[in-house]
Amino acid sequence: MSYYLSGRNEQTKQIIDDKLRSTSGAGDEVMWLLEAGSFNFNTGNFAASLENFRSAEKLIAEYDERAVVSIRDAMSESATTLTNLNTLPYRGFCRDRIALSFFKSLSYLGDGNEAAFRAQLRRLRDEQKNVIENYQKIFDAAQAEVYASNKKNQRTLNADSREFLNQANSEEFNASYQQLKTAANRGYGYFLNPAAIFLSGLGNIRDGLYDNAKIDFKRLYEARPQSRLFQQYYVTVLRAANQEIPPELKSVESFNFPLAHDCIYLIFANGRSAALKQVSISFPVMAAWPMCRYFPAPYRKLQIAAGGKNYETSLLSDMDGIISQEFDELLPGLITRIVISTAIKETGSYAAFYAANQAHWALGLAVLLSSSLYRSAFNTADTRSWEILPKEFQLAQFPVPTDRRIVIAPDGIGGKARTIELPPDCRSAIIFINAPSAEVFSTYILPMNQ
After folding, report:
1. How many domains does the chain have?
2. Is residue 430, in this structure, part of any structural domain at all?
3. Are 84 and 379 in contact (CB under 8 A)?
4. d(CA 162, CA 28)
5. What kind and span of H or E run contains 90?
6. What is the pLDDT of residues 278-297, one digit of tens each?
7. What residue numbers bound the domain in which 331 lies?
8. What is the model's pTM?
9. How does pLDDT run across 381-410, given as a tens digit for each residue?
10. Cβ 446 vs Cβ 110: under 8 Å
11. Which of 448, 450, 444 has the alpha carbon at shortest distance from 46?
């Protein structure tokens, strides 16, 4: 991430390629395929990005097709009581799977395959529904395996797992947990990602399917009813579909230019995604715990000048809120696993020390030292996550300027105006701007001419 955030793409690519080779067929393969896919997309290598995302999709589908939990995973689940959750394969968050579909759609467009782009958009809405259903099956199966393999720990399992959070003896953990709850409140419910729903709606608009577009933009409006951007899109498609405008939106004006053609959609990927870090918590023994870590955005928004008019980007999707809400949903099960794992390690360590010490004090000391080293090595949090994602997506839309020149001025530290020249044959386009840090600002024009 240090190389990526400073724009050292060759070094970043080398590390990712090495990880792809070393994790092939291993538990972390999905994570590194996702990292490779977003890195290749953000550096303009759309063909490689598609290959990465297809491979990740295939592996994820294999996980989802398992009726309960495979024998290999069952063995890994049991092993977590002696090691840690890192022994389980990385299946990805719901956020990952929906973001994969979002980037895969744009990768088709960047690769010059607009027909595949439009076909992928038609699948986006159903894919979000399928992702949630399949992920829930995996989550339920994993939880059932935890409970089945730890029947003897009824006292621990029957406890309210969130009580452990209230008893946490760690300032770092408590501060991180409060940040998590604040960020989780910015989520959209049901793991909805507005950026993906927007692309689905855009595809329906360009296909002239305003009844379908109405469904997409109604979902966005209901997710954030105070968003002026979502209000305007919803009202625009309602009027295009000759549908009645809700009373509370009658004063909202439609866009005064066509959205289906001769239009620029500027998507701004601002900042770097929240990641997972390890913190310590005592209940009463010390345990390692994953928690979200957040990073400041390099810019507030983008100011845009095009065709003699000024525009600015608005929030489309709070990616930090999405991952935080999901992580908060997963906490009860995560707590149960970590509590059981830590308790078994501590109990086993004490029993081994007691038995050895009865034989000879030196042997007892050796066992104590070795068990301490073991617990230190394996008492680590599972902090794996897809990190080459933005903190947020922002959006602006405006007609194609007659002079085909667009001036962008980032509003933030180090923001310098940049000019974009549209190709002569570009009828409409998605302009994707990626700024994970103040040192990196990349722009790609993804033409839409069909």
Report:
1. 1
2. yes
3. yes
4. 29
5. none
6. 887 765 555 677 889 999 99
7. 2-208+260-448
8. 0.85
9. 888 999 999 999 999 999 999 999 999 999
10. yes
11. 444
